[in-house]
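Before the break, one more example. Copy the sequence into your notebook; we will annotate it together after we see the structure.
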Amino acid sequence: MIALLDQTTLLYILLSISALSIILIFWIIRLEIKVRRFTKGKNGKSLEETILHLKQEHQDMTAFRDEMEHYLKNVEQRLHSSIRSIETVRFNPFNENSGNQSFATAFADESGNGVILSSIYARNRMSVFAKPILKFTSSHELTTEEKETIDRAKKKLNKNDA
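Here is what the structure looks like once it is written out:
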């Protein structure tokens, strides 16, 4: 009976090895088909050339991205100091029937730096004034209309930031 058990065990072992061998052969054939599809072309060298080409394109794209990031940072810095708000208030300084020919126009960047131009119109003359603005204020005395213009420019910038 021991000999029979040994033969039965040996038979199971041989059948298991045979089944495993058949499974491995099918798996190898399947892998070979996949490798042939993957390397389809003139030869394996064309796959290597393709991979090297893709690597070079990736390096080019990385360099381009770095260049664009640097460029955009530069543009952001320039944009921060450029004129971002222009506001005008028209008024009649002498309460005449000449209409609102006088005006005050503020040109300001994000920090509130810039200039305010004012024009006073009278029947016999016209005067133009320019006053520097630093953080939405001026070291020169401002008229009510100029202050209103600067306030509007400041509100416009705050609205755009929100």
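The chain has two domains: 42-80, 85-161. The mean pLDDT is 87. Try to locate both features in your own notes.
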